[in-house]
Amino acid sequence: MRVTDTVETLERVKALMIEGGLPPTPINYDLCYRYVAATDAGFVKAVDAARREGKFNGRTATRLRATFFGQTEEDVLAELMDETKDQLDRIAEHVESSGGDARLYKQALDGSSRSLEKGLDPDTHRALLTKMAAATQAMIEKTSQLEDQLVSSSKEILSLRRDLEKARSESRTDPLTGLPNRKAFNAYLEAQTARALADRKPLTLCFLDIDHFKNFNDRWGHALGDEVLRLVAQSMEHFFHGLGFAARYGGEEFVIVLPGKDLEAAGDIAEQFRDFIGSRTIRSKQRNEDVGKITLSLGVSQMRRDDSLESFIDRADTALYAAKQGGRNQVAIEAPATEVAA
Fold first, then answer.
1. Which residues are catalytic?
2. What's the Rg (C-alpha) of the chain?
3. What angle do CA 236, 239, 242 make, to 5 degrees?
4. DSSP state for residue 173 in the 8-state scheme
5. What's residue 2's pLDDT?
6. What is the three-class DSSP state of 217?
7. Which CATH number fits domain 75-171: 1.10.287, 2.40.30, 1.10.150, 1.10.10?
8. 182-333 adopts what CATH topology?
9. How far apart are CA 266 and CA 269, in angstroms?
């Protein structure tokens, strides 16, 4: 592609984003680029139809992206934000309308007051009272409508807030075990490393792997394998409550962040958990028989002052590998360093 063609494409993408009022995010750029590059005829046709009707906007873009390319976590959150904005716009519209009605009502009151100051005959006075009664009733009805709208909108906004919190929680939760997932772990570890450095306190990391997990799946089936994962996760949640942050890293690998613990303390905790899991027996509900015990290999590292997140994680993973190479069902602790965070 020539440079001039590239520039022209970028200009068309930019123009489409401006037309739809789309924020300049990578996901919106990707969507508009797909349209300009005509990578999907059906998608291009759908966008063209929305543009002709003047309905190409953020909500339409989210819907079309989900229809043609699948829905992302960002799409779910964007939909919720759009719905929230719609609710706020409706509230503002009702408040503005009621404000206008209130001003008209005040004008009617002022006019009636001035008329009364001049003195009125009984018939005119009666007509004035009838007019004011009608204006007052209309204002009461408008106020009641606003109250009803505010109550309804308040309920819908609370519902949207719950949906938003649920979407956020689900994006950071492993669906099988219920533990925080790798994304949640990365965010937590990043925050804790900064805190440990600032407070000059130790921070340790423990990776653990279920020994011979493939054998459970191959011999007893994936359903039992899932039960093993859930059992380990539930045990971690119970054991490390108040001690640290437990998460599923991927597959049969889990991770624990232990704030305030040095290598020796973290190693002792890891040994205790290994013993705790080793005392559990797996039982097949389908066959109604015991299928064996779970053993774990664990690797522990402590944050150093010159660590990046990647090097901190890599050393824990290396220690885990050493535990597995050493025969499994054991804890391996990295060699202490002089430049630890504490």
1. 252
2. 32
3. 110
4. B
5. 44
6. helix
7. 1.10.287
8. Alpha-Beta Plaits (3.30.70)
9. 5
